[in-house]
Amino acid sequence: MCITVTKDVFPLAEVFTISRGSRTEAQVLTARIDRDGVRGQGECVPYARYGETVDSVIEEILSLPSDITRAALQGALPAGAARNAVDCAMWDWEAKSQGLRVWDLLGLPAPKPEITAYTLSLADPAAMEASARKHSHRPLLKIKLGTADDMPRLEAVRRGAPDTPIIIDANEGWSADVYSDLAPHLVRLGVKLVEQPLPAGEDDMLAEIERPLPVCADEACHDRASLPSLKGKYDVINIKLDKTGGLTEALALKDAGLAQGYGVMVGCMVGSSLAMAPATILAQGVAFTDLDGPLLLAEDRDEPLKFDEAGVHAPKPELWG
Question: Are strands 21-35 and 2-18 parallel, antiparallel or unpaired?
């Protein structure tokens, strides 16, 4: 088996801003597995928040022995971007080598379209109102916040999209006091969910303060080992392949989370259709789906995922799986 990795850059359609900074492009890594004339591929997004760089993730991928199996991979690399790209490439290779789809290998029905959120990045209130108005036809909007002055932004988004369901992502940007002040207004404005209002590791207060709407663990939840630390603080977990280290662990985390009473959201980093493709299997039947990465790009992969009024569709085999 030959494992290779390349860096790919996809320009964004617009500048994308969250509480930690802005970007104009998505830098991703594509892992490819070639064996017996069959190629499998997977994509990951190295994320500085988790101590990853493009170079460090490439090094992890290339450190793997050529005879590694998917089962052995789970212990060979930690949960994170490198393992994700290789794990998903292995699933793709297994499906193509057997002439099946990945969901066939898993004994699951073919994925149906899932309604996905569309993300509005952090900006001044006027810009966010205009963006909300432009995208008010979408079935679900996700709003990036995370500053001490977010109330005007919230009001502006609601003016722009008065009837659209909204979820909020603070990206660890609020304090407990700021969140407590904002929470009643989130309810008043019809917000359905708030993601990671407090920094991971500084979120014990969530077990003590009132949670009038569901609170979702994002940066605080990576894989199954994260679950014990979330108890009493969160109502929903956001599962991302780049955090779990691939589809294998993501499916196990979904099952474990549901068994422990958590709602499930399936999210993504800003990447191409190849990164989202495995997550369409994971997203089946979850409370919230946020797989809009390709919609934020100016360019995408060949054979991109289909997005329409029904939601995000399962990938064609030419793309993945």
Answer: antiparallel
